[in-house]
Amino acid sequence: MCGIVGYIGQRDAVSILLDGLRRLEYRGYDSSGIAVQTPSGLEVRRSVGKIDRLRQITERAPLEGTTGLGHTRWATHGRPSDGNAHPHADCTGRVVVVHNGILENYLELKTMLEGEGHRFQSETDTEVMAHLIESALVKRHDLVAAVRWAIGQIRGAYAVGVLSADAPGLIITAKRGAGAVVVGLGEGETFVASDIPAVLPHTRTVLILEDNEIAEVTRERVLLSTLAGRAIDRAPSVITWNAAMAEKGGYAHFMLKEIHEQPEAVAATFRGRVEPETGSVILTEANLTPDLIGRVARVVLVSCGTSYHAALVGRSMLERLAGLRAEVDIASEFRYRDAGLGPDTLVVAVSQSGETADTLGAARVARQHGSPVLAITNVVGSALAREADGVIYTHAGPEIGVASTKTFTTTITACYLLGLALGLGRGFLTGSDGQKRIAELLEIPALMTDTLSCEGPAGKLARELNPYENFLYLGRGMQFPIALEGALKLKEISYAHAEGYAAGEMKHGPIALIDERMPVVVLTPRDSSYDRMVGNVEEVKARGGRIIAICHRGDDAMARRADHRLEVPAAADLLSPLLTVIPLQLLAYHMAVLRGCDVDQPRNLAKSVTVE
User: Considering the entire predicted model, what is its pTM?
Assistant: First the structure.
């Protein structure tokens, strides 16, 4: 997730672009840049780091112009650096592009363009688009036609802004499945942005592009059409949000926004990495060579906190998809064990920030013992990514709320992809198995969107449970880690005491706590552990416990037993944790709001634990 801004009018473009980027910095903050149409042509300023560094560069090397584009980056292809920062230009400098999204076929396009004599300066997929457009301009001599042609060559998701030295006073923007493109309409000036906060100081009248649409933007008008060329007549909308609400997409808190972003974040994590027709998985940066896959006899996942819970889900995925022995260790304890490491043990280090000190320490111990290390992280170029032999990046985008939500579900998605890749590589899965498993994965974003409809019931349930101070969460199999995660979320942000247990362990101690003052959250999707979970529910009921069931929609048997229920749609067993965690995230969120807690910045917690 990156931030895009554009301006065309009569005012100084640089100040407007920099202010817009500052308002979008929550979308990405590893590098930034601007391009301005100056009297001498297109000029670009870029910098790794926060927006303030870019501002300092523009003060030392000023730009003069009234038309420009800006970008703040969250890296997906290429490490954070000056050279990988947007905007990107073609070799001639005639075309500049800013881009949010992932171009799935950029490597084959890059190879084609290099064969035509194009030379690339960055590691990004975005630069390919600038060269494609320049190549098309040679033949078509029309920027709009060139952009349409270039987009037609691309597979993947994008929101893009384009400037050309040959078309002063014109910005082209288009989108397909990669977040919003907002065009703000002013008096004699027009704005482009990937989110509403960037345009609010200037106008509240906006046009919002839908998928497969392109806009030709000048200071006086906006021509909207489909990528196929059909004109669109759409009335503008008027935004009533204030600036704080707009930054959070209209949500009250970043955490709630990020809960609702999960369907797209999960889709972004597998997009371009699966081939549904062949049942294959492409994890280029993981460096899973045939030799490595052939010698791996077991997998050890090391992680902390929410990432540890995701790794527990990942363990089951690896066992069932790849037929490998898999273990999970808390990273802070890993170094104190004699874990029997060596070249046949793949150590998977999981950290959303890539900077968690204990996980970094565990990865270094693994390397010292000759084990290959694979990182799963959300941050390109992070310390963990550099330490590891290979990496799977989750494409969650920046997560501002301290309590992890979308990085949890995208990490599980990455584990699923890893399991598929290893299973297919070892011959444990056939091509038809891969097709089936990928088809099940492709259904998940829509099912997650469906699950989010339980927010209203979750908010109502939070009001009923708010007086209670102690909670027990129970799950079995794939749902046990979700019980742990649900309990962690509740105590992290609402400060209620909550414990997660494997349901089979209830009789070994926790049952002594159960009475009418103890709400018990049970995870009861209709999987292979369902009948045993029903038995646990009956045991809780017999002791007066208050039962909150996370169950499949239409489960009448559970409806009769539970005092309250939050329903989810059915999904493949291995992927059901991606659904059952959502009601627990929403319940914790609404409990915290009712208690007046600081949801996005809970007391005593930090987003990344960089000390041991």
Answer: 0.77
